[in-house]
Design goal:
Elements (H helix, E strand, L loop, with lengths): L1 E4 L7 E6 L7 H10 L5 E7 L12 H12 L5 E6 L4 H11 L5 E7 H9 L8 H4 L4 E5 L15 E3 L11 H9 L13 H7 L2
């Protein structure tokens, strides 16, 4: 993992928050900051390759620039880049980059957690075995997230403002195309550029 910006100087518990950041939203920030209840720092993570989507509209470099700009002004948030998009790949690459780390968390929404738990892994261990190397910090997404029957300490619920749970990057892109209000849904420091990219 390329640790582009650290959110804390001497972290032993680190949260990784992977997303497409297409574009970053206030919901993203709420999840990342909620993760700080468990972790010393939370890294906003941009994979170079996604397991189930491609880069569209905003380039890799532009998304990374947005993430650094956002994290730089918020305590506890940093930025990382990974080669692979699987949670396990990210956790292992973080430990390789900083061997001092004792606990790795993956910060995600309910939809991403359910996808991780149900994914038909062919070239990686199953979800239960992967959870020996990291834990999940899961935020609800509109509906109540029932914790699956997994070993204690492997999945934790995040507390996020319900009003933010319905915000999505897809919804913002659609609002921009339909000329509907959207700027209140993204961090103010990137709003102008977001409007230009997704028109």
């Amino acid at each position: 993992m390329d640790l582009v910006l650290r959110g804390a100087g001497d972290s032993r518990r680190v949260g990784l928050f992977p997303a497409a950041w297409n574009p970053p939203t206030l919901a993203h920030l709420a999840l990342a900051e909620a993760g700080l209840a468990f972790a010393d720092e939370v890294l906003l993570v941009l994979p170079r390759v996604f397991p189930h989507k491609e880069f569209e509209q905003a380039s890799f470099d532009l998304r990374l620039e947005w993430m650094v700009r956002i994290a730089a002004t918020r305590a506890g948030l940093g930025v990382g880049v990974t080669a692979g998009g699987l949670f396990l790949e990210m956790a292992r690459s973080l430990r390789a980059a900083d061997p001092r780390i004792e606990q790795v968390y993956i910060v995600c929404g309910q939809d991403a957690a359910e996808r991780f738990l149900q994914w038909p892994y062919q070239r990686a261990p199953g979800a239960l075995e992967q959870l020996r190397e990291f834990s999940l910090l899961v935020a609800p997404r509109g509906t109540l997230f029932a914790l699956p029957d997994l070993p204690p300490g492997t999945v934790h619920k995040l507390i996020v403002n319900p009003e933010l749970q319905e915000i999505s990057s897809t919804g913002i892109r659609e609002s921009i195309r339909r000329d509907e209000p959207w700027t209140h849904l993204v961090p103010a420091e990137i709003a102008v550029e977001v409007g230009r990219v997704y028109l």
